[in-house]
Amino acid sequence: MEGIRQKVQQREHLMYEEMLQAAKWMFQDDTPKEQIGSFLTALSAKGETAHEVAALATIMRSFALDVPAKAGVYMDNCGTGGDGLNTFNISTTCAFVLAGAGVKMTKHGNRKISSASGSSDVLEALGIHTNISIEQTVDLLEKEGIAFLYAPNVHPKLKRIGEVRRALGKPTIFNLVGPLTNPVPLSTQFTGINRPNFVMEYASVLQMLGRERAMVVSGPLGLDEASLAGQNTFVLVDKGDLIPFSLTPEDAGLSYAPIEAIRGGNADENAAIMRKLLAGEQSAYFDTVLLNAGIGLFSYGIAETVKEGVEMAKDSIFSGRAQRKLEAVVAYSENIKEVEVRQ
Known about the structure:
The protein has 15 helices and seven strands. The protein is α/β, with parallel strands linked by helices. A seven-stranded mixed β-sheet has the order 3-2-1-4-5-6-7, sandwiched between helices. The model has no long low-confidence stretch (mean pLDDT 92). Its EC number is 2.4.2.18. Anthranilate 2 binds at residue 165.
């Protein structure tokens, strides 16, 4: 392992097999945390490669708990985070809109590490219990077509790595790997990354990991979502093809809005934004969710175009279906809490 660490310190890229070895080393309980931290920092300084990301994702996925979901076409829209732009929880909001439009959602997420409010933080502010069992997760997914997988619950080996990441306080390769390690088998995915120059490589990672259809986006200023603030960079994975393209909000029938218009706050503030939005209150927050949910519906294959997806997302909200998905998940969570109290 010493040779691999030196190679990274010298800013040399690792072969796939070398990164498999390094990933196993990081997940060993006796590996010093300081060494993990310096290795992650060195990887970030040299710039991670598609093979390094794919190898780490493969090892991390192998350590995940099994989530025995029934056969189906499941989708995750978790992004990498780490863009530092302090937007509200776009992908978590979109998950309810997508579920309301008929997509089977298994949203992977975590608490804040390099943001003001992570996916799990805002879910708890909404009244959703994130620390539920695998059996309850599968039951909720079957009943409502949406479930949230809290990363520490399904990746018990991540505990020590999480401590290292919090100590570093900045994005690492684990931000890139997070969306790739959903324990539910995914044939389709829509994910955002905070590195516009890595979109093609990230799409190739999704292809390596067996996604039949998927979409990667990086928005203006490196936002890990599609944005109303200008041109968004995409690569569509369609079986064997990697298709790059760009899209502006106007292309999808929406209007420009600056990044400042979708700033978020803490978990409670973001939960309030989500509730208003899902109740149909129109704003830049609302249109940003329409854009991303529209792309998600196109990625899933329900919509023929992103513009058609935007209209379907609008219908999911205005019909009340998206809001009902939120209420159903909250109700399920409250029921679990009541049973725990009685026991």
